[in-house]
Amino acid sequence: MSVLETIRSPRDLDRLTQDQLTTLAAEIRAFLIENVSRTGGHLGPNLGVVELTIAIHRVFHSPHDAIVWDTGHQTYVHKLLTGRQDFSRLRKRGGLSGYPDRAESRHDIVESSHASSSLSWADGISRAFQVRGETDRHVVAVVGDGALTGGMTWEALNNISDDNNRRLVIVVNDNGRSYAPTIGGMARYLNEVRTRRTYRDMQKGSQRLFDRFGPPGRAVYRGTRGALHGFLARFVNYERMYSNLDIKYLGPVDGHDEVAVENALEQAKNYELPVLVHVITQKGRGYAPARADEADRFHAVGVIDPETGAPLAPASPARDWADAFGEDLVALAEDDRRIIGMTAAMLRPVGLEPLARRHPERVIDVGIAEQHAVTSAAGLAFGGLHPVFAVYATFLGRALDQVLMDVALHRAGVTFVLHRAGITGPDGASHHGMWDLAMLQIVPGMRLASPRDGATLAEELAEAVSVQDAPTVLRLPKGTVPADIPALERLEDGVDVLARGSESDVLVVAIGVMAAQGLEVARLLADEGIHVTVVDPRWAVPIAPSLIDLAAKHRLVVTIEDGVRVGGVGTRLRQDMRAAGVDTALNEVGLPDAFLPHAERGEILAESGLSAPAIAADIVGQLAGTKQPAAKPARTRVSD
Predict the structure, then answer these.
(1) Which domains does the chain have, with CATH numbers?
(2) Of 224, 254, 551, 601, which has the most beta carbons under 10 Å away?
(3) Residues 138-175: tens digit of each pLDDT
(4) Which one, of 587, 544, 596, lies nearest residue 568 by Cα?
(5) Can you list the GO cellular component terms from the UniProt entry (predicted)?
(6) Each residue of 206-215: pLDDT tens digit?
(7) Does residue 398 have an active-site annotation?
(8) What pTM, to 2 d.p., does this model score?
């Protein structure tokens, strides 16, 4: 039996010798490479935190001591050490989540994988322990160095230092990368700490000195390494970053020396005040293909060959939405010098890398700082440029105030390109981009488009960057761009008619990639003798007048969107129909206002009632109960 197989809870680590701990670390890396290569997932980050996670669970007693991870994609080792070793369905329905999940384990506390929030959680938890008199409980926040680029981290540090009579340990997992290499002044400082010759020379010299005394000398070196680092820090001024925050600093510590990490954490634990432990790790540690990947160190992989790291899935001839957007943006930027690309630490995933290669001076990466990005974009627009901020849809919610008060209020020409809008699948509740359609409709002057295919993406992006007096949004789903769906007709206000039936039955308003679903619904209903007109509004917000006119001529209107029903496009259309005196029954088909679990996109859509057969069956049932109007549509309102 392997050492890993004997671990069912963190306390099983207490009985292991140092040699067994070394073996365990090797077994965990082998396990991760073998299992994640089969399912896909976040491989590189977890290979880098093996010894760190072991040390944390040996020094602190979860769940009595609260451990918060920022971000949650580095918790695979934590799962293994807390009794979750079946990775066969990782990130699939019924299997382990790729992030902390309270439903899985009492050792998981914070489920959201949005970066830079852990110190605020830790601040609140430690205050609660203090108020309740639970003075024997510690709080540990494990913060990736990329999270330090987020403003929330520094707001939390300010408050932690204001009331520091708490047992709070902040572990900075410094690997020089968030998704990609970490950027900004903080990154430059941490890089200086990692590479400064004064520290490295003194550290190596001391190690060589102890090595001369053989195994006893090396044992003494390991036992005193935490104190040694503190001594060396005096010569290289590592504490200057935190000296004014009244937070004790320990480090830097070699994050792959389990003994050194454990010693530093023991010191932090015994200090009984807020302590920051600076741990230097390597993303992708122990796996040559990951270490050779300069772009992101195998941050997230699909199914791969565990020996070579090469993808096993056949190359798809279809373009990814991010690739298509990147190509279209470069083409527009060649002719329009006002266009500036912006991202929040995700240059490659959002398709800005082609523009960065061609015009590096015209791409800005702000780090994990969405609020700053949006307000900075407003400033760029005031200065005569047109910023295009590409971000995951789930992350824009962090900057809603800035969208409202800095961009929209000032009528700034800023384009937001929301990637992974709608259901994203295996990354679960915190990554589904399902709130943007509802959330952004409250923004005055907002114009929001949802391309259905590559052709409409190119058209709508060009239209968006031409708007200089209001914010514009394009929402792009996860996955490959589908085949183009040609329109039968484009109405004067830009609405595309995709299929036309008798104007006495059903009008289907399909938003973005749900156009294919709408056309399949029309085909199924045609078999029932029901005639359907399918339209893609292209610009979903504001509501096009032609949609109101078409609604007045049909028995039933059905909107299909991969966002939440509450406050979605269907709700907006209903309100505009009422204002125009059109009482046609309307049914909004969309996602429930719930946090949806991880599963394949198709599985979630089907369970949410967004499959074509389910929509068609519902329409048949509704029409059977809807009165045929005489002179004008009935006033019956149909809702799901």
Answers:
(1) 4-292 (3.40.50.970), 321-475 (3.40.50.970), 493-624 (3.40.50.920)
(2) 551
(3) 999 999 867 777 888 888 898 888 777 789 999 999 98
(4) 587
(5) cytosol
(6) 455 445 555 5
(7) yes
(8) 0.82
